[in-house]
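Hi F.,

I've been meaning to write this up properly since the lab meeting, where we talked about keeping a consistent format for the predictions we share between groups. The idea is simple: the sequence comes first, exactly as it goes in, then the structure tokens exactly as they come out, then a line or two of notes. No screenshots and no reformatting. I'm using this chain as the first example so we have something concrete to point to.
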Amino acid sequence: MQQPITDHVDSHLEETIEGLKRLTRQPSISAQRLGVLECGEMVVGMLRDAGFDADLVPTADPGYPGIIAELKGASDRSLLFYNHYDVQPPDPLDEWETPPFEPTERDGYLYGRGISDDKGPIAARLAAIKAVRDTMGELPITIRWCLEGAEEIGSPGFHEFVEQNAERIKSDVCIWEGGGVNWDGRPMVMLGVKGLLYVELECRSAKTDSHSSYAPVVPNPAWRLIWALNTLKDESERIAIPGFYDRIRPALENETKAIAALPDTSREFLHDLGVEMAVGEASGYEFRRRLIMEPTANIAGFGAGYTGQGAKTILPAVARAKLDFRLVPNQDPQEILQNLREHLDRNGFSDVTISSLTSEHPARTSIEDPFVRQVADSARRVYESEPYIVPSMTGTGPQHPVQHILGVPVASCGIDYPGNRIHAPNENIRLDYFRLGVLHTAELITELGA
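Output, unedited:
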């Protein structure tokens, strides 16, 4: 790590944190259309202040504009950063120790909604770019940025956005939004994301709720929906939708070795969530393999009838459940949707309707790609420890169009740590890991320039 760059990062760290606090104070809740446009304009201003040619770019929904930015460097070699500036709703508010949009620094941590996902990485990358440019006189490479304001609601229209703006954002390599360290503080380089199919199932039996004494003769849609859901998995947790597993690409040997090389953090993982035992009592390698490589069928929400305080004896007229399926290469969300419909019909649940809310294809970069080695080498120098190579994040993002339309390898380099509580109350970053994430980004930029 070049000392002048380190000195620049450290001397401007307080200024960087203050900029992150200002960005976090601006709500940008895409699910509620709250403050998204205002936050996008703020990010454009931050990029322009850093020397970028940056603009808000319309998407299919004008309420969720994208951002494209470019800063020319000494060479034509180019790096693309992907980030999003929208955040999850802060609910439940009563579980926050401090207000979610009033960023609070406490005992080496910084708390606030979006502070880790994904405004912290934006601030960290800007700080790294400024450090390299100011100490070297100019960037050694050209840096481009692609940001969106609807990632937290499934990135609607992002595929078309990438297609329409491919010439403006096409680069040699791409750094994704996440990245950071494992429980032991060693850096993790993650190379992909799972896909997603998010649906809502609905069963309706009457035009209005009725007296529960009618239950012997009036169908209860909650029971119907529970029975329908019960057909989706067997007792061993295997997903029972025909064809669900047929297209999955088996894990490659180097992916299996990479997972085997990861430490066993199952105890820390479960303890942090207050969970006593993993599904199937998985631990060690099997715990990691399932988390990283297996697809899922998850009930994200269920609602019917009266759930307020006290008793109300009613028979609900409608029941709804939200499900998300996390998918792995080469599963197709539209094919899974069709298989789900056929499965419910075949089992006598044609009355259960399906609404597809969002979908994403899975994506994964090869461990053998030279870019992966560059990200890992730069991490090793900054963190002074051997990085872990992780074939895929456990979550989802719109990485597929970036990899397959732009044709670029994608890896991670960031500020995360396992206790950051993204999407949950008291979301936070550790300031020491934030600093290291800035330094890793700066080191990678110089590495690519060399």
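Notes:
The longest strand covers residues 195-204.
The chain is about 35% helix and 20% strand.

If this format works for you, I'll send the rest the same way.

G.
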